[in-house]
Amino acid sequence: MRKSEVLAAEAVSCLNRALAALRDIWEEIGIPEEQRLERTDVVKKHIKGLLDMMVAEEESLKERLLKSIALCRKELDALCRELRLDPFEAEEESTILQMEKDLRTRVQVMLKQKRDRQQELKALQEQDQDLCDILCVSPFGIDSNAVPSLEELDRYRRHLASLSAEKERRREQFVSIKRQVILCMEELDHTPDTSFEREVVCEDEEAFCLSTDNIAALQNLLQQLEARRSLNEAVCVELRSRITALWDRLQVPEEERESFAVHMTGSRAKTRKALQLEVDRLEELKLQNMKSVIQAIRVELAEYWDKCFYSQEQREGFSPYYDEDYTETLLQLHDAEVGRMKNYYETHKELFEAVQKWEENWKLFLELERKTTDPNRFANRGGSLLKEEKQRAKLQKMLSKLQEELESRVQAWEQEHEDAFLVKGQQFMEYVAEQWQLYRMEKEKEKQERHLKKSRQIEAEMMYGSTPRTPVKRRVLTPHTPGKVRKLNTTSISSATPNSTVRSAFGATLYHSPTSRLPPSGGKQFGQARTPSRVALKPPRPGHREQNKENVSQLNGTTLSARTFKGFQV
Fold first, then answer.
1. Architecture in CATH for domain 282-375+385-459
2. Nearby residues of 513 by Cβ (< 8 Å), 6 or more positions away
3. In whole angstroms, what is the distance from residue 570 CA to residue 560 CA?
4. pTM recorded for the entire structure
């Protein structure tokens, strides 16, 4: 049994006891029956009224609870729509009181969510407005009167985060550009003369509007200032170049140059002004020393002619070079020619340097070739002869490679410029061919001179006979001049053979003839010319052969006439 039922039974028992007690009292008092009935009716009416009043109050409570449930349901539906949430479903099995409590609690929670979202939206809108004012952009599109959804708030937060990042990026960009603008203005001695420049340089950084237009205008300002600074730097570089050239031409003392060294760096306006004043002073001094200046320019012009491989005819084409009337007009002509030659050389510098490299290697090659005719080269010490042969072989390969590269580069240059590339008045390949031709002619001339000398020696021996050599002299030559033996073994054996044949045919009469003697001067001359032939016929001693094995192996069969360069047979 429920406690409520037990309490109800106790209430009924209490009522019965109370009525019984009233009856006993009335009995003792002696109240008549009619009055007892009246009194009992009053008790009944009183109890009934009390109970009716209590039932009415409870019924009222029930009605209030039902109305509250209805209102909460209605409010919950509205809040779910505003908050974009699913409708709330209450438990149907719960009592009226529990349902009312659950609905009322849910309404309070949803009202709190609504207030929180509205407050967050307001804060985000305030932050958005501040960023929009700084960046000069439109606010985020959202209904201020509606309750935002969680997705809308999340998008709004991400939008503001991107705006904040953009603000910081533009702020850093603005600070960086502003710093560069200030530096440029300082170098140019420029003061802000427009409202925008003053706003950039003089106003507070936080007050500057970081709009795209302002950033673009700031970048444009920086570009203009940098262009002016670059122009100023170029002018200063040109002025310094002119000053240096004038110093060299006028032979200005080093002390005077050092005193002006403070202005030889930087490009500020005062530096440019100082450079211009120095140029004006030197130009005036140049006019006062016209002859020495022109002569200095001619030296410089000759250097550029050499670098560009100008022929004598090309040099003579500039007739003012030979004019002795030193006037300002002549100076201007020389300055113009130096400028033209300098520009021509700088434009084709790589090609000229390549030609110069070929020229240097060619001269080194000719020098090594001249050394091959020197008898002293066979006095080999420390493998110098082997080193020369290796160096000559390396030069031959390098010359061939350089010639091939230059031929292709010169052809490309001529096709590009539609003009002939001249070296000392000739096309490059013609110039190279001429050098090889001169080299071959020189070698042929040397060969003919050797043959002529040998013919004269043979004639002298036929006419006057051989000059006998004492054994002592032969011993002096053979041990101490092994280089000559090696040379004769490779280069003179063929020329010695006919000589020995002549001596074998006529030596019996000519060698022992007491009357066949040369005068002292003539005998000395022909004796010296004939000495290699007599020594060549004598076989080298075994010890010397072993000492000279290295050089002999290098010299045998390495004559230059067997090597071929591109287009030229040596």
1. Up-down Bundle (1.20)
2. 465
3. 7
4. 0.41
